[in-house]
Design a protein that fits this description.
With 153 residues, this protein is of the alpha+beta class. Helix content is 37%, strand content 20%.
C-alpha cells in the first residue's frame, strides 16, 4: 500500500504499519519504522492532527456476527437530479444492510456493499428497501463468493 498524500517516506512507513496493525504499541511502531519512540509518537500525532490519520477501527469477522452473505450492488437512478441523489443517499445511510455506498461514474450512479445474514435477508433488502425507492431504475447484484484480498480497515 502506497500513500500518495503529502507525506515523506517515514510517514508512509508509519501509515502502512498502522493500516495493518492499528493497535501496535508506539515502541513497536518506532522500532519497525526506524525512529525513537518520542520521534515516532510526534510523527503519529502530527499525522492525526493533519487529518491524514482520520481514525482507527476494528476489523470484524462478519461470519462471527451473523453475516453470511455479501453482495456488491449497482444502482441506476431514474432521475439525474440533486434531490433524487440526496433521497437515495439518505435511504442508504438509514439502511444498516448497506455498509458502503459510493457515487460512481459509468452507466449507473451507485455502487453498494451489502452485508446480510443470508440470501433470504438479501432478497428482503432488495425488495423491501431498494425496490421501494422511487428513484431506483435498475439494480444489478454481484454476489461475493470469496475475498482472497480485502484490506478494508
Amino acid at each position: 500500500m502506497q500513500f500518495m498524500s503529502k507525506t515523506d517516506k517515514i510517514a508512509d512507513k508509519i501509515l502502512r504499519v498502522l493500516a495493518r496493525e492499528a493497535r501496535i504499541s508506539n515502541l513497536d511502531l518506532a522500532q519497525r519504522v526506524g525512529l525513537s519512540p518520542s520521534a515516532c509518537l510526534r510523527r503519529v500525532q502530527d499525522l492525526e492532527r493533519r487529518g491524514v490519520i482520520a481514525g482507527y477501527r476494528a476489523v470484524i469477522d462478519p461470519a462471527k456476527t451473523g453475516i453470511g452473505f455479501v453482495a456488491y450492488v449497482t444502482v441506476g437512478l431514474n432521475l439525474h437530479t440533486k434531490s433524487a441523489q440526496e433521497g437515495f443517499e439518505r435511504a442508504m445511510r438509514a439502511a444498516p444492510q448497506c455498509r458502503e455506498c459510493h457515487n460512481i461514474t459509468g452507466n449507473v450512479e451507485y455502487l453498494l456493499r451489502v452485508e446480510v445474514a443470508d440470501l433470504a435477508a438479501y432478497k428482503h433488502f432488495h425488495t423491501e428497501t431498494l425496490g421501494t425507492l422511487p428513484q431506483v431504475l435498475a439494480i444489478t447484484s454481484y454476489v461475493v463468493m470469496g475475498s482472497p484480498k480485502d484490506e478494508r480497515g
